[in-house]
Design brief:
The complex is a heterodimer of chains A (150) and B (93). Chain A is built from 3 helices and 8 strands; from the N terminus they run βαββαβββαββ. Classes of the chains: A alpha+beta (150), B alpha+beta (93).
């Protein structure tokens, strides 16, 4: 039996245009969604201490990160009855203003689409093995030990 | 005890692959090592015991543990051939 969930997950080591990826994803869907919810997260221009940010470094755990993203997406989509899901996440060095994460969910109703998108985003922020390090212009790097408030 | 299946996975020298990431890797000064199973094998070995034996920095309660790419508890019994990772606080998305 075919997997009812259309799930696309990618870790990207170079910059991407989230709107282009969204357009391509929607064009590839086997059937159009009546409701879609999207989240695009971009790198801030300032570090947590307020100083200008040179770049953000994203480290991951090869193998586990991909596996965990799939586990989280399948769990979340299953609970909300969602059939279309896209997760794109940068790794490596990401510059201020560049897209860091894209989550898109397609469903039949706005409620499941919006709730699933938000829950999946929170899940990947807390339960997918990624680590951020802020690099400042003076060459100082600082690991981030938590997530920004909701 | 080390099971026959675990011995088969590792040959004659059963071991555990241990990985550290991000700030923990830099504090410890290494990213990966093979931990060789003692001979004779001890009845149980847990991530928390390995943390102490390796003299890793800080409180193990403040890190998360993954065994073979799945989150696990600090007191989960390890098997020869396992891949054990200590994960400092996660910050994705």
């Amino acid at each position: 039996m075919a997997d009812p969930l259309q799930l696309r997950i990618n870790l990207l080591s170079s910059s991407f245009d989230p709107l282009q990826l969204l357009q391509r994803w929607q064009g590839d869907l086997q059937q159009p969604c009546a409701a879609a919810s999207h989240f695009i997260g971009r790198v801030r221009a300032t570090a947590t201490d307020g100083e200008p940010l040179e770049a953000l470094e994203l480290e991951h755990y090869p193998g586990m990160t991909e596996r965990q993203l799939e586990v989280l997406a399948r769990d979340c989509c299953g609970r909300h009855g969602v059939l279309h899901c896209l997760v794109q996440h940068r790794i490596g060095r990401v510059l201020p203003g560049e897209a860091l994460v894209l989550v898109a969910v397609g469903a039949d109703r706005r409620g499941p689409a919006q709730r699933c998108c938000q829950e999946l985003l929170e899940a990947l922020k807390h339960d997918a093995p990624f680590w951020k390090r802020e690099w400042q212009r003076n060459g100082r790097g600082q690991w981030i030990t938590g997530n920004t408030p909701l | 005890m080390v099971s026959v299946a675990a011995m088969d996975r590792c040959g004659d020298n059963p071991s555990i692959r241990i990985l550290l990431f991000a700030s923990l890797r830099e504090q410890a000064g290494w990213s990966e090592q093979q931990w060789h199973w003692p001979d004779p094998p001890r009845p149980t070995l847990t991530p928390e015991q390995l943390w102490q034996q390796l003299q890793l920095p800080g409180d193990p309660q403040r890190v998360r543990v993954a065994i073979n790419h799945q989150f696990a508890a600090l007191n989960t019994p390890l098997q020869a051939g396992d891949e054990l990772a200590f994960l400092p606080p996660i910050s994705g998305g």
